[in-house]
Amino acid sequence: MSGFGDATAVKQVGEGRYEIVLDGGYAIGEALNGGYLMAVMARAAVDASPHAHPISTAANFHRVTKAGPAEVVVESRKAGRTAAASLVSLVQDGRSVVDALITTGTLDAAAEPDWAGEGPPAMPPLEECTDFRPPSGGGFADQVDMRFDRSTMGWLDGRPSGRPEVRGWFRHHGDEPLDAYSLALAVDALPPVVLNLDAQGWAPTVELTWHMRAVPAQGWLAVHGTGRLLADGWFDEEVEVWDSADRLVAQSRQIARVPRTRG
């Protein structure tokens, strides 16, 4: 497997039970990235399913998940010819840290859309975008290669745009191959869109639902994040992921918290 594949690989230890040592390389601070955790859980769900892809994931994040040993428990709810559904729990230190309802199916990589709406939003070319790494380095920023649309990164210079949006290009560090689990990572890879509303600090996700829409072509993914409402310490974030063939390959929506102290 690739580095990302190794970091998300689960070992079956019983019926519907898997073990993994969660990789601290996907942490932001002490907390592991939610997209990384969803990729781990999706691998277990697919392994326990007759189907090849995580079509829909609805995840609830209960508490901070840290690097180290964990267990994934998969409880089948349905196993059909077209789709299967499982309740999947990520357990650490004897407590469930993430629960997700994951629906699996099998997508045809060669399938063409029967209908599609507008194409991807405009993105600056790679050479006009900027990368962003925290001053300390390490962690999640070293596992992914991201280049951001400068017009959506004004918050870095204390000039938030006032629009809840962030856009960027995404791939694994070292240009490792993309797969279904890469999409789980990509939908939660952007800085929180609320940073452009001058809401500073850690923004923990409470619930995130994402859908895999197609098998991604290799190359850079374009990731577009927007929001609709910030109110009473809660904000929403919607993300679309487009592949190098300009196909919509993933969509997500999450509800998250922001600190009440504003920057």
Domains counted in the coordinates: how many? 1
Low-confidence stretches: none
Element-level helix/strand string: HEEEEHEEEEEEHEEEEE
Provide the CATH superfamily: Acyl-CoA thioesterase, double hotdog domain
**Beta-strand residue fraction:** 35-45%
- Describe the largest sheet: 13 strands, antiparallel
Tally of strands: 15
Distance between the termini: 42 Å
Q: Report the CATH topology name.
A: Porin
Share of residues in helices: 10-25%
Summarize the structure.
This protein has a single domain, classed as Porin, CATH 2.40.160.210. Helix content is 10%, strand content 39%.
Structure commentary:
The protein is mainly beta and 263 residues long. The chain has one domain (3-107, 123-257): Acyl-CoA thioesterase, double hotdog domain (Porin, Beta Barrel). Helix content is 10%, strand content 39%. The protein has three helices and 15 strands. Strands 1, 2, 5, 6, 7, 8, 9, 10, 11, 12, 13, 14 and 15 form a 13-stranded antiparallel β-sheet that branches. β1 (11-14) and β2 (17-22) form a beta hairpin. α2 (34-47) packs antiparallel against α3 (180-186). The radius of gyration is 18 Å and the shape is globular. The N and C termini lie far apart (42 Å). 43% of the residues are buried. The model has no long low-confidence stretch (mean pLDDT 94).
